[in-house]
């Protein structure tokens, strides 16, 4: 994802700890949960890297930072610049994406 869309990772002044999973692998995990219907706990971390808890935490961070709306706008802008989008038919006010937690 473009750097201007994803907020900067928080600094860890205490140092140490595990390395932060990359944005791309976390995005892949989030998209998998959103499209497969599995819960965060069912996310196969062996396939994606981050655990369900990590993916959910980043999903919540990115939702608060409006990453989904920014990303959606970038996709629309790209399609528009290629002439693959008829802006006269677009009336989008906001973008919401929800994924279930704990099998709800």
TrEMBL record:
A Pfam family the protein falls into: DUF4096
Query: PANTHER family in the record, alphabetically?
Result: BLL5188 PROTEIN, TIS1421-TRANSPOSASE PROTEIN A
Q: For the Insertion element IS402-like domain, which residue ranges apply?
A: 5-72
List the residue ranges of the region (Disordered).
1-22
User: Could you identify this protein by its name?
Assistant: Transposase
Its signal peptide is: none
Q: Which organism is it from?
A: Streptomyces canarius
- TM region positions: none
């Amino acid at each position: 994802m473009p750097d201007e869309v994803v907020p900067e990772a928080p600094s860890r002044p205490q140092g140490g700890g595990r390395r932060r999973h990359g944005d791309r692998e976390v995005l892949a995990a989030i998209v998998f949960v959103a499209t497969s219907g599995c819960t965060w706990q069912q996310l196969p971390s062996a396939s994606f890297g981050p655990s369900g808890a990590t993916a959910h935490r980043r999903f919540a961070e990115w939702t608060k930072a409006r990453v989904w709306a920014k990303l959606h706008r970038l996709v629309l802008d790209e399609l528009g610049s290629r002439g693959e989008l008829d802006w006269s038919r677009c009336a989008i006010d906001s973008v919401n994406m929800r994924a279930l937690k704990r099998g709800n």
